[in-house]
Recover the amino acids of this structure.
């Protein structure tokens, strides 16, 4: 193994155990204990929680505090990141509108609002950013982005939308949305039926949210000519992605690809001896375009060996071949892996690298 070429450690978070930076450190410690001398840590995310921090870390950006509303309308301290001297801003939906902001007994999937995310977008634009990347995922909301758009100046009735203030505020600003899932807004695979139950919605509330989002999509079709109903990724972030796409002209992009492009992953991987990625659970969602799959695909395309340290591995042999990645699971009993178990798994990967 060449000492001049480092092993690039590029994991996502291990949900329920470690943030992406903590996971990178744990994997790095295990590799170092196993004899790997040259390491470069690159914690990543795919649009959900931790994306802002990962981008700011990789691009040496600044994170600025800003007041915002939480999903229940209470004022909290949120934040956004500025990159490239302040020209590009990263606004993470979970900062203001995240599920973690609301205690389990407080969850209100019908009444929760994305207003705070719109406040952070407005703060980023007011700071001088000309490009705003909104990373969606991990939200407590299912309002289709209505609250965020209202915070940006939109006025809605039950059947009309006044978007003049939104268009004025966004003039000269490129708005992109990094989506952590590809689900459309409506239907069996849509925002309400797939994700609202995770936010505490009962079966009746799921149908109420579905109907509300259907009305929201119909109004968008009338007012802007854009229909988010079947648009891939429009269901991300409780429909925030679809709302920003339909009413504010945002571009939707797969979160993992956007993050990797922004941090310059391809060049870093090209200069690496190998890539070690990771996440809490390797499953069918992973091969649907989550970060680990995107990292493995790009490493393969660049001719760089790729390994994955994961909490649990639920993929079969065919799916492993599809990913073309060597997998080392930290836990074999289906439980959440601890930091020590992740380190030990990384040490086992080191043996493969040194061989």
């Amino acid at each position: 193994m060449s000492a001049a070429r480092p092993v690039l450690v590029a994991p996502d978070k291990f949900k329920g155990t470690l943030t992406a930076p903590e996971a990178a450190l744990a994997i790095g410690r295990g590799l170092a204990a196993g004899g790997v001398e040259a390491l470069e840590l690159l914690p990543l995310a795919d649009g959900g929680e931790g994306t802002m921090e990962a981008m700011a870390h990789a691009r040496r950006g600044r994170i600025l505090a800003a007041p915002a509303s939480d999903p229940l309308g209470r004022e909290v301290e949120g934040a956004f990141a500025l990159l490239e001297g302040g020209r590009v801003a990263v606004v993470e939906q979970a900062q203001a509108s995240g599920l973690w902001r609301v205690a389990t007994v407080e969850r209100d999937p019908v009444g929760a609002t994305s207003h705070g995310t719109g406040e952070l977008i407005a703060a980023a634009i007011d700071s001088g950013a000309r490009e705003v990347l909104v990373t969606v995922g991990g939200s407590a909301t299912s309002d289709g982005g209505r609250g965020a758009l209202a915070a940006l100046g939109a006025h809605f009735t039950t059947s009309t939308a006044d978007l003049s203030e939104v268009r004025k505020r966004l003039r000269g600003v490129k708005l992109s949305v990094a989506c952590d899932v590809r689900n459309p807004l409506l239907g069996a695979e849509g925002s309400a039926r797939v994700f609202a139950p995770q936010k505490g919605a009962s079966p009746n509330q799921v149908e109420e949210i579905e109907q509300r989002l259907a009305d929201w999509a119909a109004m968008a079709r009338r007012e802007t000519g854009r229909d988010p109903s079947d648009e891939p990724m429009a269901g991300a972030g409780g429909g925030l992605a679809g709302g920003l796409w339909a009413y504010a002209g945002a571009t939707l992009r797969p979160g993992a690809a956007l993050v990797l492009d922004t941090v310059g992953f391809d060049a870093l991987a090209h200069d690496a001896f190998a890539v070690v990625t990771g996440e809490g659970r390797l499953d069918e969602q992973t091969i649907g375009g989550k970060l680990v799959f995107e990292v493995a695909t790009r490493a393969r395309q660049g001719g760089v060996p790729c390994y994955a340290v994961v909490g649990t591995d639920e993929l079969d042999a065919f799916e492993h071949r599809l990913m073309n990645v060597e997998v080392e699971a930290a836990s074999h009993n289906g439980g959440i892996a601890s930091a020590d178990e992740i380190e030990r798994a990384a040490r086992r990967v080191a043996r493969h690298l040194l061989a």
About this structure: The chain has two domains: 7-38+273-354, 51-257. Residues 7-38+273-354 form a domain with the Rossmann fold fold (CATH 3.40.50.10350). The radius of gyration is 20 Å.
